[in-house]
Design goal:
Length: 128
């Protein structure tokens, strides 16, 4: 199995765990778990995009998450590049500081908006 297919399977598992966490009743511990799973799912999402782009021969090597998101948007792997940049920025803010209000705001975005983008990406990547 090639690297892209392996990473896609890892991404699917992470996405499923995030979806499961989002089904739980909203408590402090669940919110913390969702945020952790979100970070992990985002990391696998952009790396799977990178592997897909390489698999398709679009790029030999790509760099940062931002570069991969931009290239994935140009190649039609994702539809909403701005939302993906927001996802990346929110993931970065979680990794570098802890502010309860910000983390709760990000939790709500994950539940209402970001999960849909992760799901769309999984469906798109499954076509390859």
């Amino acid at each position: 199995m090639n690297r892209f297919k392996e990473r896609l399977e890892e991404y699917r598992k992470a996405l499923k765990r995030l979806e499961e966490a989002l089904q739980e009743e909203k408590t402090e511990i669940v919110i913390d778990g969702v945020l952790h799973r979100f970070e992990f799912t985002f990391e696998l999402a952009w790396k799977t995009m990178k592997d897909c782009l390489e698999h398709l021969g679009v790029a030999e090597k790509t760099g940062s998450p931002r570069e991969n998101i931009q290239m994935a948007f140009k190649q039609g792997l994702i539809e909403d590049g701005e939302t993906w940049i927001d996802i990346m920025l929110d993931r970065n803010s979680l990794a570098h500081l802890y502010d309860e209000d910000t983390s709760r705001d990000i939790y709500n975005k994950i539940k209402e908006k970001y999960i849909k983008e992760f799901q769309k990406l999984e469906r798109k990547l499954s076509q390859f």
